[in-house]
Amino acid sequence: MIALGVILLLIGFIAKIAILWTLGIIVLVVGLILVLLGSTGRAVGGRRHWY
Predict the structure, then answer these.
(1) Contacts made by residues 3-9, CB under 8 angstroms, sequence distance 24+
(2) In-domain check, residue 51
(3) Lower CB count within 10 Å: N or C terminus of the chain?
(4) CB within 8 A of 14, min separation 6: which ones?
(5) 50 is a domain residue
(6) How do the pLDDT tens digits run along the chain, 51 residues long?
(7) 11: which DSSP letter?
């Protein structure tokens, strides 16, 4: 999700498309939150590990 967020941010910035910029920020923040929850050992979405 973090990689997708960064890609959307870059495409939105280069193409000057505001909706892609906004979606990129949202996806990036959600990805970072999931990384933080996963690194603390907390189960995310009912699973402790995602493979």
Answers:
(1) 4/31, 5/29, 5/30, 5/31
(2) no
(3) C
(4) none
(5) no
(6) 888 888 988 898 899 888 998 999 999 999 888 888 777 777 766 666 655
(7) H
